Urease accessory protein
Amino acid sequence: MTLRRFALPALATALALVPAAALAHPGMPGHTHGFTDGLAHPFGGLDHLAAMTAVGLWAGQQAKGGQGDRAVWLWPLAFLALLVAGAVAGANGLAVPGVEGGIVLSVVALGWLTAFGARLPLAAGAALIATFAFCHGAAHGVEMPADADGLSYGLGFVTASAVLHLAGVGLSRLAERSGLRLAPRLAGLAMGVAGPLLLWA
């Protein structure tokens, strides 16, 4: 089974499980938190904002033919699939050790990988990104408001994450085509250097 054939069903399955997240939360009848709240959530923390943008920046750097072109869509897709899986786990009370450390590590690692324009095998890059995504998803699940509509809220933060990935890919490709290849690298460098500070943010 190819990575593409695996990734698409995995994402579909993960999205189908989002409503299960709602079952962990009392107060559902009010449905006071929905799509727009979930959409705003990733933009409320520099850790989520930086990591999700970095996924797009790094994936965009891979687009030079062959497997690199597939990384542009497969790596963000891998992130989204495990983001949902992590959110379902977190919302249903699964204790994921080291989540905060994993989130900070994701910013640092993805930042440095972007700064150096590192090129990894397609599967290795997807696996690394998916691991980080699970940590981010678990944090989203734990932070989900108690009165949230799990499906609407989940679709909101998945949509926001996809937008950040697309923005990163777009900026990376634009920089490549306009001769500003250093721009994504400098952004990655800033993330790699500043990432540890998030521990005290």
